[in-house]
Each structure stands twice: as C-alpha cells, then as structure tokens.
Write a structure and sequence with these properties.
Blueprint lengths: L14 E10 L2 E12 L4 E5 L4 H4 L1 H11 L8 E7 L11 H11 L11 E3 L2 E2 L5 E2 L4 H11 L2 E4 L9 E4 L40 H13 L3 E4 L6 H6 L10 H13 L5 H4 L5 E2 L7 H5 E2 L4 E2 L1 H4 L4 E4 L7 H5 L2 H6 L1 E6 L2 E6 L3 E6 L18 H8 L5 H4 L3 E4 L5 H6 L6 H20 L16 H14 L3 H17 L7 H11 L5
Parallel strand pairs: 3-4, 5-8, 8-9, 10-17, 10-18, 11-14, 14-17
Antiparallel strand pairs: 1-2, 2-4, 6-7, 12-13, 15-16
C-alpha cells in the first residue's frame, strides 16, 4: 500500500514549479512544469495539451516513486505544462513531474531546483533513462545558463550537467548529484566502418571523379551495369572526406540525437552516410510525422546521401530534393507552425542504364523494350539530375584486374589530393582581390578556357545551369592542381565528367 513505506506527506495546497524542456523539430524549448496538490479524490491530472506518451507518465511516475522508497501522496494532483498552447509529446517529462510532486509534498529538498532543467524518462523501477534529443537539451541549458539534470553521460555537452541514474539519487538534493563522467564513445558498430577505395578494382577514372566531388562537394551520378562497383564506390566516399569540424559535428549530433539514432560514428568525426531504400516516401526523405522529425536528407547533413537505383524512387520523392539541395535546409509547415531542418549534403546517385541493367553490354544482351528504356531513363534526365554536377558512366571492371588487385589507388592517396585542393581553395579565396559580378567570373577562367567552355557547351548541348556547373567542377580541378587560373585542360575534364565520362 502507498502508506507503508514512510510517514504520509501532507503537502495539500502546495504549488511547486520547476523547469523542463520539450523538442520542437531539432530544437529544445523551455517548458514549465507546475504541480498543485489538494485534498479530494486521489489521482493525477495532466493538462497543457499532453499526448498519449505524456499521459502515460502518470503510471510510470507512481511506480518509480514507490520503487525508489518515496510515498505516493493520496492527494488530488494537478500537473500543468506551460506554455499550454503547444502540444507536449514524448517521455522526457517523467522525471520533472516526479521531482515536482516530491518537492511539493516535502519529500525532496528544494535547494538548487530553480537553476536546473530536468529531462528524463523513468522506468517502473525508478531508473532515470536518457530521452531522445539529449544534445538539444544540453544546448538549451547552455543558452539559458542552467544546469541540465538527466541521465549521463552526455555527448558534446557544453552545459553544466548533473547526472542521475535513479530517482532516489535526489534524496540529498541536486547539489549531491555528480557531474557526468567524460563521454567515451563506444566501439564503432560494424556498419559505421568505412571501406577503402583500395578495395575497388579497375575503376581509376571513377575514383578520380569521386576525389573531385569530395573536394568541391559536387553531386555525382553513376550509370552502369550491375556488378560494376557503383555501391562500393559510393560507400567509400566518407573515407576521403575531411573530418567533421566542431560546428559540423555539433549540428550532425543534434539532428541524429533528435532522431534517436546512434552517435558513435559522428563522435569519431566520420561524416554521416545515408542510403535510403527506393520505396521511401517524400516525407521520409524531407521529414515529417507527428511529432515532426528530420528526414533522410537532414540525417545526411554534413555527409552523404546515396540514392541507389535512383530511377526506382518515386518522382515526388526525387522532386522534393531540389529545394533542399539549393537552399541547404528544408522547411516543413504544419498546423502547429514551421520547422526548419539543416540539409547540407552531398548527393550521390547510382542507376542502371535500363531496367534490366544490360543496355550497351557487349556480353549480356538487353531484354528491355524501347518504351521501357525511355521511361526508365527519363528519371536520369529530369530537373534533379540536371542539378548533379558530375555524371559518370561506370563500366564493368576487367576480371584480370579484379583477380590481381594490384596498383589500385587507395583512400589515403585520394584523401591527400582532396586536402591539397581544400587548402589551396581556402588560400585562393582569402587572397581574392574582389568579388566578380557573376558566378563564372568569380571562378577565374583564363581567356582560352572561357572560349573552350563556350565551344564545348554548344557542342554537348549544355544549358545555362549545365555550363555553370561545368565551370564549378573545372575550378575544383584547378584547385586540386594548385592553379590560380582555370585552363583548357580543366574545362575539358569537367566537360568530360558532365557528359557522362567513361574509361
């Protein structure tokens, strides 16, 4: 029975307030938890637009209090969550509700509570569990100058933090709680390890294209038959990308934390790599749901979004990528307001030349009709593909090269080339005399290169966007060669990759 564990607290007529927080998109916003107790029919009522998960906190809080040796007061308890006009969701209110009730009934000391933000889920045994979005809560506490009280350890926690493992840890007050132990990422799970380009045989031109894409953050589309190594080429890409800087790491951690995903790879500086299945919906790509959560393009923020079998994706899903690619963020509008998610990612896509995958194959004949081929390839010539800078024809590797496997370029070699290009670009931009009036003018093409770009654009049928993107790739190639001016050779190589370069 409730009264068997100790003296029954009075606490009737008490009103107690403390601070908590809720997630809204990828941000945490402050919520005030208010508890009022009175005589009457025992029970707990939660107001302030709670969802089902918040309402279920009533049962978890009662069980956790009993298991931790506290008395569940036989009073009428009213719990208010303010601001009342925002829908509250999730299990992160378990801990603040329990602490507010215990403080209101005199079972916990109140010293230091005002300067804390409480966030956490409670188990039925009274254990404090981490809630989804701990990085966002730590950032909010840092902005407010408050102390975050939650289950530790906490990755990238810049705020003052106190760690709890059980509700009973608060018996001696907040000041008795320890600071979280230093966060040590767990051993990387198998799926986080990135393969090396040394494992890719007989695809030197493709590796060159990937090193250019990594240096300039260019999108890349591969077209080739099954077994040509397209997926492996894409999965090796994070191995040559520069490590995440502190700002990029924090943003990626924030998105993944809010989504409830593992953080081990990001903590190790490895850029995210997301490869959604082609059956994914547009909402799965850009984000949505109730509550609104980030989609795959935001989970790929500061990393790579890989669309394998790109023509198999729905047209609506592919069209939804265009605006985020241009703006670097996605904006979702719902009845409760607008949500912004970051989405600066490298798009890498792969496709077969036709539905059966053997169009143009010298060994295996194609079994597709002209109508099937035209319908399939229409996705490769749409507005999204036009925004992809590098379009590469990947051929099946030579079996002799696959068997011998010697002399292949490794990720270490390609990474060095990428670092050289990035360093030279940073130097060049820091020494730029003045900003040009147009984009191509800012890329520093010499006169011969400008004429070559015009000639190739007419010959290969590049539109305005295509011509600009060729010039961008040529500028990246020149940076990798540490050239201040873009020459004809760089324009020719960039046009080669724009037109679907082959070996």
């Amino acid at each position: 029975m409730d009264g068997m564990r100790g003296p029954r607290p009075s606490g009737a007529g008490e009103v107690f307030r403390l601070r908590s927080a809720m997630l809204r998109g990828i941000e945490a916003i402050e919520v005030e938890v208010e508890v009022s107790t009175s005589h009457g029919i025992p029970g707990m009522t939660v107001v302030g637009m709670p969802d089902k998960a918040v309402l279920e906190a009533r049962s978890r809080v009662r069980s956790a209090m009993r298991a931790s040796g506290f008395v569940v007061p036989r009073l009428s308890i009213m719990v208010g969550l303010a601001p009342a006009d925002l829908r509250k969701s999730g299990s992160a209110f378990d801990l603040p509700i329990a602490v507010a009730i215990l403080c209101a009934t005199g079972q916990l000391p109140r010293e230091g509570i005002d300067g804390c933000i409480f966030v956490g889920e409670l188990s039925l045994a009274g254990e404090v569990l981490p809630a989804r979005g701990m990085v966002a809560y730590a950032q909010l506490a840092n902005d407010l100058g408050a102390t975050l009280v939650a289950a530790g350890p906490m990755p990238m926690a810049r705020a003052r933090c106190r760690s709890m493992s059980s509700l009973s840890d608060l018996r001696l007050g907040v000041s008795s709680l320890p600071e979280p132990s230093p966060f040590h990422p767990e051993p990387l799970p198998q799926q986080v390890f990135v393969p090396n380009y040394g494992e890719v045989r007989d695809q030197e031109v493709a590796k060159r294209a990937f090193s250019i894409a990594a240096t300039g953050r260019h999108g890349l589309l591969m077209v080739g038959p099954p077994g040509s190594g397209k997926t492996l080429l894409a999965r090796c890409l994070p191995s040559i990308l520069p490590p995440l800087d502190k700002r990029g790491m924090l943003e990626a951690l924030l998105v993944h934390s809010v989504a409830g995903l593992g953080l081990a790879g990001i903590e190790a500086g490895i850029r995210p790599f997301r490869a959604p299945h082609h059956t994914i919906s547009a909402a799965g790509l850009v984000g949505g749901g109730n509550p609104v959560r980030p989609g795959e393009i935001s989970l790929a923020h500061e990393g790579v979004l890989f669309l394998d079998e790109m023509p198999e994706f729905s047209s609506r899903a592919l069209d939804s990528l265009r605006q985020p690619m241009e703006d670097g963020e996605v904006r979702i509008v719902r009845a409760e307001g607008a949500f912004r998610f970051p989405s600066r990612f490298m798009l890498v896509a792969a496709a077969n030349p036709c539905p059966c995958g053997h169009l143009g194959d010298d060994v295996v004949p194609c079994t597709c009709t002209e109508t099937q081929v035209a319908r399939y390839r229409s996705k490769l010539a749409g507005p999204l593909a036009d925004r992809i800078d590098i379009q590469l024809d990947v051929r099946r590797p030579d079996p002799a090269q696959v068997i011998r496997g010697s002399g292949d370029t490794t990720s270490e070699t390609l990474s060095d080339a990428v670092q050289v290009g990035l360093a030279f670009r940073a130097w060049r931009e820091s020494h730029a005399a003045s900003a040009a009036e147009d984009e191509i003018g800012s890329l520093a093409l010499d006169d011969d290169a400008s004429r070559e770009l015009e000639r190739l654009s007419r010959r290969l049928g590049f539109g305005g966007r295509g011509t600009v993107r060729v010039a961008r790739v040529a500028r990246t190639i020149a940076d990798m060669a540490e050239k201040e001016k873009v020459g004809c050779d760089e324009v020719a190589e960039a046009s080669f990759f724009r037109a679907g370069g082959t070996r």
